[in-house]
């Protein structure tokens, strides 16, 4: 399995697998739609994912930087329609290559710096997450948002899982995210 933009460390996710391995191709600050810290995921998907021999699954965990980073750069966040179009393109490309594709919902980030956490970006996150959960474009969904959210304020990371900046998970948060993966979805 190849993970594109996935935070849990590969050993944490790979440990319970009976067969196979996990390789993390995530780039901190990477986006689905626009270049920034490295090429965006749509541009690097063929090189970083489809070129790997014997690949069976890909897990994509993208979108939070498409919503948060633009605020720091004075740009508008990506729209829900643009993110959905990007995720759909990744799913189509993976399926055409005979791969199973798992998508992670976009995690909460309401506690982040006000330049990152905007009401518009949080509303887009909720819309995209609803689409990811219900679309059927993916072979499985990893609901990161529900796994790490504060149950009393779901736009925020649970305080016990927050690194302290409102956007990034601590080690326990990364474990909660990895533990939310249904291993049956990764069966070879």
Specify the overall morphology: globular
How are the strands of the largest sheet arranged?
Answer: 2-1-3-4-5
Structural class from helices and strands?
alpha/beta
Alpha plus pi helix count: 7
Write the element-wise H/E pattern from the N-terminal end onward: EHEHEHHEHEHEEH
Structure notes:
This protein has 188 residues and is α/β, with parallel strands linked by helices. The protein has a single domain (2-186), classed as Rossmann fold (3-Layer(aba) Sandwich), CATH 3.40.50.1110. The protein is built from seven helices and seven strands. It has helices at residues 10-14, 41-50, 64-73, 80-96, 119-134, 144-148, 171-179; strands at 2-4, 23-24, 57-60, 100-104, 140-142, 149-150, 153-157. A five-stranded parallel beta sheet has the order 2-1-3-4-5, covered by helices on one side. Strands 6-7 form a two-stranded antiparallel ribbon. Helix 4 packs parallel to helix 5 (119-134). The longest helix has 17 residues, at 80-96. Residues 1-10 have low confidence and may be disordered.
Write a compact overview of the structure shown:
This protein is an alpha/beta fold and 188 residues long.
